[in-house]
């Protein structure tokens, strides 16, 4: 049987990894797919740039449209990133009846509904395992491995840059800005780190995970997003003192009112396995009603870990090239006509526990005023730590852990606390999740 010919859009880090994995493991991949897989064409910005991988036998071009329009290609692999040109190229490939594999989380999170509708109409597949958590096969695990389950919630460390920064802050007592500079020097963070440290990258990925977990349309604009740039080394140390670690989590949970969809720094008990995922590694914890909590851990980025997921998708597409389009695994796990209209909750409706840190005047009655305000809003306290004022300063640091409460009530309580004349500056608030299967 003739090998399946594919075209690559992009020969950067992931594109190079894809070439390397496909060629190194060609025999094994052919045995799994049932047919050979041949990279026939590829598009790159600079054809003269030295590359650490062999491109012999691949027709190279600077025009990605030439790759998409090649009638001999059955699969287009989109690895250029962004969500403008990539969207146009993917829709162009679909219109020509070509299958698509992509590692582009922004593309799927923002335009996936449109892309999947077009793919369904043309009877082609769009595979996107590499768009979330790099080499971890989390899409397949939820969409297929956990298909028997009613997914209750999931929580993930799905950005390695942020996890590296928080790990260094915890282990070495360093400041955020200092570790960020190192992350940039090591290539873990971009020159403009906004997408990583402010949670946008994680929000793209969480959008996709929530959709396949709960059968809802992709809704990136509905994700509550909060970054880690305001986390201090003191917060990290106080969390440790209380038996918690701070992780930048993407969390989605289904309840009777709707779907929670949120990315933010989170205190989690240090005994949880996910609390011990360090450095640039990723992990996703998924709770199903039948299976219980399941944890998926691995490299969330990098040339070959991401290429592992890209090539797995290519193999899946090759396996189904002759399959009836009506009997393929649905793009978003649920049949397109069975997606739910369950609403995404506003963050003020979400219930969680909280870590609060504030600077208060060191005199009698201050804590009573703060706890009165919390009590007026139905917020009970689990633990309090008060640190002595530094010499020459009138303010003591007060740290509180609360029980679970609706965020809207906490917003009102924090506003009331910050209005007290005995409180200096703003109250630091970090959400707390136990992730114990509740």
Molecular structure report:
It contains 14 helices and 17 strands. The chain is α/β, with parallel strands linked by helices and 438 residues long. It folds into three domains: 4-135 and 303-338, NAD(P)-binding Rossmann-like Domain (Rossmann fold), CATH 3.40.50.720; 138-299, Dihydrodipicolinate Reductase, domain 2; 350-432, Alpha-Beta Plaits (2-Layer Sandwich), CATH 3.30.70. β14 and β15 (395-402) form a beta hairpin. α1 crosses α12 and α4 packs parallel to α5.
How are the elements arranged and paired?
Elements: E1 4-9, H1 13-24, H2 26-33, E2 37-43, E3 59-61, H3 64-68, E4 75-78, H4 85-95, E5 99-102, H5 105-122, E6 126-127, H6 138-145, E7 151-157, H7 160-172, H8 176-186, H9 194-197, H10 200-214, E8 224-225, H11 233-241, E9 244-255, E10 258-269, E11 281-288, E12 292-299, H12 303-319, E13 351-361, H13 366-376, E14 381-387, E15 395-402, E16 405-406, H14 407-418, E17 423-432
Parallel strand pairs: 1-2, 1-4, 2-3, 4-5, 5-6, 8-10, 10-17
Antiparallel strand pairs: 7-9, 7-11, 9-10, 11-12, 13-15, 13-16, 13-17, 14-15
So what's the overall shape? elongated
Number of helices: 14
Could you say how many structural domains there are in total?
Answer: 3
Q: Given this structure, which CATH class of the largest domain is correct?
A: Alpha Beta
Counting helices, strands and paired strands, the structural category is alpha/beta
Radius of gyration: 24 Å
Largest sheet: 11 strands, mixed
Q: Give me the CATH fold name of the largest domain.
A: Rossmann fold
């Amino acid at each position: 049987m003739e090998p399946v010919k594919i075209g690559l859009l992009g020969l950067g880090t992931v594109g190079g990894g894809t070439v390397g994995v496909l060629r190194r493991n060609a025999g094994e991949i052919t045995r799994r797919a049932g047919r050979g897989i041949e990279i026939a064409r590829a598009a790159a910005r600079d054809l003269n740039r030295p590359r650490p991988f062999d491109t012999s036998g691949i027709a190279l071009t600077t025009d990605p449209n030439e790759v998409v329009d090649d009638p001999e290609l059955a699969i287009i692999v989109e690895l250029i990133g962004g969500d403008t040109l990539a969207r146009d190229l993917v829709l162009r490939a679909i219109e020509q009846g070509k299958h698509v594999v992509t590692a582009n989380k922004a593309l799927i999170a923002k335009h996936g509904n449109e892309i999947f509708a077009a793919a369904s109409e043309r009877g082609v597949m769009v595979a996107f395992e590499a768009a979330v958590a790099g080499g971890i096969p989390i899409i397949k695990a939820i969409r297929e491995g956990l298909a028997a389950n009613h997914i209750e919630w999931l929580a993930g460390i799905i950005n390695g840059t942020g996890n590296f920064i928080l790990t260094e802050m915890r282990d070495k007592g360093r400041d955020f800005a200092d570790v960020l500079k190192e992350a940039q020097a090591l290539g873990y963070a971009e020159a403009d780190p906004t997408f990583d440290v402010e949670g946008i990258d994680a929000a793209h990925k969480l959008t996709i995970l929530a959709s396949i977990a709960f059968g809802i349309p992709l809704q990136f604009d509905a994700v509550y997003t909060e970054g880690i740039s305001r986390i201090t080394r003191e917060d990290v140390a106080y969390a440790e003192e209380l038996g918690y670690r701070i992780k930048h989590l993407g969390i989605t949970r289904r309840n009777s009112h709707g779907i929670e969809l949120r990315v933010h720094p989170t205190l989690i008990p240090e005994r949880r396995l996910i609390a011990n995922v360090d450095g640039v590694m990723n992990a996703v914890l998924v709770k199903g009603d039948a299976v219980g909590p399941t944890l998926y851990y691995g490299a969330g980025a990098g040339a070959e870990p991401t290429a592992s997921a890209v090539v797995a998708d290519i193999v899946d597409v090759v396996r189904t090239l002759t399959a009836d389009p009506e009997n393929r695994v649905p793009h978003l796990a649920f049949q397109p006509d069975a997606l739910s209209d369950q609403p995404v909750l506003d963050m003020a409706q979400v219930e969680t526990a909280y870590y609060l840190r504030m600077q208060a005047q060191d005199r009698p009655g201050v804590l009573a005023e703060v706890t009165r305000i919390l009590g007026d809003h139905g917020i009970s306290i689990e633990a309090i730590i008060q640190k002595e004022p530094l010499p020459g300063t009138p303010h003591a640091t007060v740290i509180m852990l609360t029980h679970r409460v609706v965020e809207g009530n906490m917003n009102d309580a924090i506003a009331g606390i910050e209005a007290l004349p005995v409180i200096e500056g703003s109250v630091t608030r970090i959400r707390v999740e136990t992730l114990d299967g509740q």
